[in-house]
Amino acid sequence: MFQWNLEKCLLVFDExxxxxxxxxxxxxAERLGAFGIKRPEELLEATNIECxxxxxxxxxxxxxxxxxxxxxxxxxxxxxxxxxxxxxGNEEVKTCHIDKTDYGSIWGMTAERLKNYPDPLSANPxxxxxxxxxxxxxxxDLYNSYESFRKYKQSFSGSxxxx
Length: 163
Hints:
Shape: globular
CATH superfamily: Spore Coat Polysaccharide Biosynthesis Protein SpsA, Chain A
Number of strands: 6
Mean pLDDT: 87
Oligomer: single chain
Radius of gyration: 16 Å
Distance between the termini: 33 Å
Number of helices: 6
Structural class: alpha/beta
CATH topology: Spore Coat Polysaccharide Biosynthesis Protein SpsA, Chain A
């Protein structure tokens, strides 16, 4: 499932990193053109911030954009928009659901912000971006994502359900 968003990231960034505890995922990501970062066992139950800090040791970049593997509808434009907002000087950018609750299909921040992050369970970015994608963990979530994407496309085309 992560291939969807990995391919999008490869279109936006010069260097793309995949952090995982799975050798199969890392091998596949590397074959597609990403750099693999082996996540140690002690990070298997860690917060995103802890995983980002671990990955940052390998990336050595001024900022990063993390794209959640299981949100397939997250678009290239949204990923690029997050990158651009960081380049404009924002220290942290994160996606939210339509109802403005925290989501995190995309979470970008500067290395300095990451280093000094106050509470890993309480995001407080300068910019929240609404994302219509579905967080997929089950087959039912996958089917819901198709329905969500269909409704999202209809909202822009002006066509509703015509029966």
